[in-house]
Design goal:
elongated, alpha+beta, two-stranded antiparallel ribbon, 2 helices
């Protein structure tokens, strides 16, 4: 799913006798979409952190050609 696509969720709320929301019920496909988005955001944040460490010299970079040679590719 691209960032430009919008997803509309259809949650159902479980409430107490005063109408306070206690839980939420989502169709499994919507739940999986949310989990996937969270994981994607975590991956992006980790990539940003790694790139920042590379840019300030705290992280070593191994060229792809060196990896291929090392593994006989």
């Amino acid at each position: 799913m691209t960032q430009q696509q919008e997803t509309f969720f259809s949650p159902q709320f479980v409430t107490d006798s005063n109408g306070n929301r206690l839980s939420i019920v989502l169709p499994i496909a919507e739940y999986e979409t949310l989990i996937e988005r969270i994981e994607d955001l975590e991956d992006c944040e980790e990539a940003r952190e790694i790139l920042a460490r590379i840019e300030c010299g705290e992280e070593d970079v191994i060229p792809w050609e060196a990896i291929k040679t090392e593994h006989g590719l």
